[in-house]
Specification:
The chain is an alpha+beta fold and 261 residues long. It has seven helices and 14 strands. Helix 1 crosses helix 3. The longest helix has 23 residues. It starts with 20 loop residues before the first strand and ends in a 5-residue tail after the last helix.
Amino acid sequence: MMGKPDEASKTTQVIGESVRLIDKSSASTMTIIFPRDMPISPFLLPEVGPAWEKIRQLGVERDFSPGGYLYREGDPPTCLHNLLAGRVRVFIGHPDGSERIIAFAGPQTTFGEYGIFDSLPRCTSAVAVEPCRVLVIDRTTLIAAGKADPDILLEVGRRLAQKTRLVTMHLAADGVPARVRVAMILTHLLDAYGVVDPDNTAHLSESHRVDDLAQLIGVTRVTMSRELSRLVADKVVVKGGREISILNMNVLRAIAEEHFF
């Protein structure tokens, strides 16, 4: 959704690995280095609240092994999912067998809202990345409870609106240069998982394969690696082994915001 994959050039940089990010910028004196001011992100963040607690009471817990599908494109929308533990990849499959990742869901996030109201087949697939425990909330039970308590349907509608904005964000990036997309996804990672260490660096509490990051922004692994190399050359990031260090967070954010972000 952020444009077709780009294979403009090649690089020898290794890309099939997990990413760890550290901010080593000494220019900022802010206590909160990574403000969570981007509510719409492909890395879904936990949400709780009174209305959601009512919805949780309607669910049944299920376990999924890595690689297990919670649902597939084309399935009838029989339920809503709330992840209790683990991580889930939400994606769209292409006819050639490739995937376009829409989001990663972590604990206390919801997905599968599409179809709750219109009964149309699912437009995405969701698969467990690691062992998962999921609260499965039956669609018929949810709607019945919502008729008795409108706050329930309002909460589901709010979360559906967030997912719609997420898809719009993907679409808005169509045609945006790959450099901007890479900076954007690194910024989203830091906003979602950045943890400040005692030595005033920061790391990610969760890691993702570089391959997956490429699929999130609609570029090939080659392009993702090339743009990371450019950021290294510009002294915005440093890459060593399985770790990516951020040297200048302000510059990274400025690159990410050159267009829509």
